[in-house]
Amino acid sequence: MTKIGLQTIKLDSAPYILETSSIVGPKEAEGPLAKYFDQCLEDEFWGEKTWEKAESKIIKENVSALVAKSGIASTDIDYCFAGDLLNQCISSSFGLRETNIPFFGIFGACSTFAEGMCLGSTFVDSHAARNVICATSSHFCSAEKQFRFPLELGNQRPQSAQWTVTGSGAVILSNSNLGKPCPRITYVTPGKIVDMGVKDANNMGAAMAPAALDTLVTHFKDTGRKPSYYDAIITGDLGYVGKEILTELAETKGYNIKNNYDDCGVLIFDKEMQDTHSGGSGCGCIATVFSGYFYQMLKEKKINKLLLIATGALMNSTSSQQGESIPGIAHAVAIENLDN
């Protein structure tokens, strides 16, 4: 493991993404990527009395399914890195409290999935762990209840607003591929906090795009790579508004990403048919889209080089009420098929 350039870490052993699992809610199950998810729920409560309890159940059952799919005993999982959007990450800590796996509760807002992969892969690469789980979750109803307004009011949503994904995505990172070809993590580029003064909580794409740009440019400068090196450059939660902003900002820095760039918030919903305005967001957005769709594309070698950039808005309901701006963060993970 070697730090190169300003922020990037080169992973000498290139840890394997051994297995993934994903669970999504009913709205996501009606979207264009439904067939790639492991489980689609019929309602947001899933038999629980509250949305928060439902979200905890989603991440609990998803991690359990992940371990079962991997064929690895839970006792052979060294650490779990997990987080969500709710206060003090209660979805993750309550949902995973019975796993008996050493637990790191992490928070990077919607960037948490890539943050976990950055941390987990460095643990594996440094031989501090053999197998680690990285997982996140989000829930439309619990997030709206906490961040914006009581759901029952039915307030008008502006066109820049995004729809928090109900779901959980999880991966196992390992020092072994157990004899099967698996995509590998070669570089990680942790991001810096970037705050351009955006205060509109209904325009997260604008708040997070500058952070995505900073990490994107830093990754290219640190590694010497160009956008064309990757088959796909994918951000997590910028939606239609943020995607357009990032594309234009990157061009001002001399990077043309138009041909191979997309966003998970754009991909997970059908904007016109599902009335999701600027697209999806939430910790579960990039987690489910990667664990379902992009992992399958990598396994089938329809893409072989993927730059995954998760973006997050580092705010809460109190900071918005007090007139604070919305700091952004973005973490990048380079994922490649190295085994022929």
Would you kindly provide a written description of the structure presented here, covering whatever features stand out?
- With 340 residues, the chain is α/β, with parallel strands linked by helices.
- It has two domains: 2-174, Stage V sporulation protein AD (Peroxisomal Thiolase, Chain A, domain 1); 184-336, 3-Layer(aba) Sandwich (Peroxisomal Thiolase, Chain A, domain 1), CATH 3.40.47.40.
- The chain has eleven helices and 15 strands.
- The chain has helices at 26-29, 51-70, 90-95, 112-125, 140-147, 204-223, 239-252, 264-267, 271-274, 283-299, 317-321, and strands at 2-4, 8-10, 16-24, 39-40, 79-83, 103-105, 131-138, 163-164, 167-174, 184-189, 232-235, 261-263, 280-281, 305-313, 328-336.
- It has a seven-stranded mixed beta sheet, sandwiched between helices. A six-stranded mixed beta sheet has the order 4-3-9-7-5-6, with helices on both faces. Strands 8-13 form a two-stranded parallel ribbon.
- The chain is globular, with a radius of gyration of 18 Å.
- The relative contact order is 0.19.
- The mean pLDDT is 91.
Write the layout of secondary structure elements.
Blueprint: E1 2-4, E2 8-10, E3 16-24, H1 26-29, E4 39-40, H2 51-70, E5 79-83, H3 90-95, E6 103-105, H4 112-125, E7 131-138, H5 140-147, E8 163-164, E9 167-174, E10 184-189, H6 204-223, E11 232-235, H7 239-252, E12 261-263, H8 264-267, H9 271-274, E13 280-281, H10 283-299, E14 305-313, H11 317-321, E15 328-336
Parallel strand pairs: 3-4, 5-6, 5-7, 8-13, 11-12, 11-14
Antiparallel strand pairs: 1-2, 2-10, 3-9, 7-9, 10-15, 14-15
Helix pairs in contact: 6-7
